[in-house]
Amino acid sequence: MKKVAYFILSLFLLSNMAIAQQETPTPAESYQRLPRNYERERQQEDNPIILDRLEEWKDLKFGFMVHWGPYSQWGVVESWSICSEPWITRNGANYLEYVLNYRKLNTTFRPKKFDATRWAKNAADAGMKYVVFTTKHHDGFCMFDSKYSNYTIADKSCPYSKSPNPDITKEVVESFRAKGMWTGLYFSKPDWAHPDYWAPEWATPDRNVNYDPLEDPQRWQRFCDFTFNQIYELTHNYGSIDILWLDGGWIRPEWSINEETRPWLGCQGRVQDIDMPSIAKMARENIPDLLIVDRSVGGRYENYTTPEKQVPDTYLDYPWETCMTMGDSWSWVKDDNYKSTNTLIHMLCDVVCKGGNLLLNVGPDANGALPDTAVARMKEIGKWMNVNGEAIYGTRPIAPYSYDKWRFTQSKDGKVMYAIYMLDEGESMPEVVALPRLDREPIQVKLLDKGSARIRQTVEGYTIMAHPQKTSKHAIAVKLIFEK
Questions:
Q1: 31 versus 186: which is more confidently predicted?
Q2: What is the pLDDT of residues 12-34, one digit of tens each?
Q3: 290-302 pLDDT per residue, tens
Q4: Same structural domain, 272 and 225
Q5: Are residues 366 and 406 in the same domain?
Q6: How would you list the strands of the sheet with 62-66, edge to edge?
Q7: Are residues 67 and 90 in the same domain?
Q8: Nearest to residue 477, comparing CAs of 365, 384, 388?
Q9: Distance (Å, rounded) from C-alpha 464 to C-alpha 460?
Q10: 164 in the same domain as 186
Q11: Distance CA 191, CA 150 (A)
Q12: Burial bucket for residue 147 (CB in 10 Å: 0-12, 13-18, 19+)
């Protein structure tokens, strides 16, 4: 009994460490909140500044995501192992001991090989055009210097705080920005280290808030203010970031709850509304064209959707991005199973032809180094993109989108169509390949790899007689020109 009590007390103390004391008014205390208009929140964004920015985002096509935190020292799935849900296993470990030890991982986190400049170069060499970095996952540990929490990379309790530049988020933003890449910041709306989310007085049966916000509105407001203040820091301390990528879709307003999302609210089904209109207004006062991705919630503050670890079956007529792991896990685990270069290039082509972007995730190890296999894949993708990127960047979908082993994109002015033929591992381009019927006849055909190609019309459509360079592999991009 004493041992259990010790662990409960320790958890209480650790969770209360997550709040830093403030002597001056916080942004949340001084900010005038917007009146709620739920009908407007349901509607899609109609601000022309945001819509224009979305079109620019669509041009990027390929992004780099990074899940990283103290959990990488154990090689476990980020945050989730401290959540008490039936699907989560801890290899038989005592839950209270496990959580206490997990919470102490910040005291040993000293990534000696972290080099944001190298990350940015690896991503740029792969042909990636934007980054989304996990500033805070559900466990509440901040990879940025926050005034509103002691559970951060820059706090004295973390050894990395002694480094010359302890704010890792700042290093990431500046390094990727120097490469001309867009910068996106991932932020978890739930915070399992905060005593006004997972209150230490009660058990935490699932991922959700463990008290009723309706019965204790002051406590819930404290958590909302904390969230507001940290997002203020992310959108005011790092220059003009491009994307605010919010995770934790069980925190959502009541109007957004449906049959699919209601089970996400857990055994108590408590609505958790953090007032996104005020957060968005505050963030965009400093960055008017900021894209906000309030994942899975829908409406005005989910500027584009993010199917996770899946590629839609067909073309989608709204902005979207597949977020996908290069291996099996979001964060670093030993001996992860990495997808082949061929698979990754095919996935990129498949996503783009259906109108989406691909956000490809890699988890750095405990020292902050990208795994060698991941770096090798990125280099190989970059070689392909250097030759065929014209068929990817800045393009738009065109019917029939996909046909057999073909994937189709077009230039924004519609004068050029790109037909990308997907090669199996080790396969060479067939000498003659059939194309479906097109609504107009091309006047010229080229291969982007500088090989030769001819086109001939048939009763069923067209045949392409292609002779690509011998070094070309993974996929061959054919350029069909319709107008001079």
A1: 186
A2: 444 445 566 556 789 999 988 88
A3: 999 999 999 999 9
A4: yes
A5: no
A6: 291-294, 243-247, 182-188, 130-136, 62-66, 357-362, 321-325
A7: yes
A8: 388
A9: 13
A10: yes
A11: 13
A12: middle
Helix (DSSP H) and strand (DSSP E) numbers for the chain: 11, 15
Torsion (CA) 56, 313, 341, 338 in degrees, nearest 10 = 110
| Torsion sign over Cα 91, 93, 99, 105 | negative
pLDDT digits (tens, 9 = 90+) for 93-124: 999 999 999 999 999 999 999 999 999 999 99
- Domain boundary among the residues 359, 391, 423 is at 391
Find, among 164, 163, 145, 168, the residue nearest to 155 by Cα: 145
Question: According to the 3-state scheme, what is the secondary structure of 44-69?
Answer: CCCCHHHHHHHHHHHHHCEEEEECCC
Element (DSSP H or E) covering residue 174: helix 168-178
Residues 6+ apart with CB under 8 A from 229: 26, 27, 28, 147, 148
For residue 86, is the peptide bond before it cis, meaning its omega torsion is within 30 degrees of 0? no
| Alpha-carbon gap, residue 306 to 319, rounded angstroms | 9
Instruction: Give the Cα separation of 248 and 83 in Å (integer).
Output: 13
Q: Which domain holds residue 269?
A: 2-391
Residue 252 CB contacts under 8 Å (≥ 6 apart), including other chains: 261, 271, 272, 273, 296, 297
Alpha helix ranges (H) inside 309-459: 341-353, 372-388
Cβ burial, residue 484 (10 Å; 0-12/13-18/19+): exposed
Spell out the residues 6+ positions from residue 317 whose beta carbon is closer than 8 angstroms to its own: 355
219-to-9, 209, 210, 211, 214 alpha-carbon distances in Å: 20, 11, 12, 9, 10
Query: What is the DSSP pairing of strand 321-325 with strand 357-362?
Result: parallel
What is the CATH number for 238? Answer: 3.20.20.80
The answer to whether residues 354 and 455 belong to one domain is no
Shared-domain flag, residues 176 and 100: yes
- Looking at the structure, tell me whether residues 362 and 434 fall in a common domain: no
Encoded amino acid at 29, one letter: E
Q: What is the count of structural domains for the chain?
A: 2
CA distance 69 to 218: 31
